[in-house]
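Work Package 4 report. The design task specified in the project plan requires that, given a folded chain encoded as structure tokens, an amino acid be chosen for each position. We show below one input record used in the internal validation round.
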């Protein structure tokens, strides 16, 4: 584990066949086994990234917003309401 980054360590633990290994993230204080909801992520062609499920969205200034059901995140970079989609991708002709 020395020298490996967090993602690599977590990936190795996730692949543990006996599930004898586990981890939790100090910065979030959330144990993976405590997460009960499952989310679905759907990139919309030429549009936003839709995330279905209950979310807590943390902004850079530590403000946190609870989102439920479906949240549309901007993929085009033109939204005036980042990180959320405001429909600007249509005006800009976003392709991707
Ligand atoms: S994807 Fe809709 S505004 Fe960027």
């Amino acid at each position: 584990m020395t020298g490996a980054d967090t993602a690599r360590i977590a990936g190795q633990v996730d692949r543990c066949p006996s599930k004898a290994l586990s981890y939790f993230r100090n910065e979030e204080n959330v144990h993976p086994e405590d997460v009960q909801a499952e989310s679905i992520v759907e990139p919309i062609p030429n549009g936003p990234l839709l995330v279905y499920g209950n979310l807590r969205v943390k902004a850079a200034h530590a403000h946190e917003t609870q989102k439920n059901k479906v949240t549309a995140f901007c993929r085009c970079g033109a939204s005036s309401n980042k990180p959320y989609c405001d429909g600007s991708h249509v005006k800009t002709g976003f392709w991707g």
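Strands lie at 40-43, 49-52, 55-58, 64-67, 70-73. Validation will be extended to a larger panel in the next phase.
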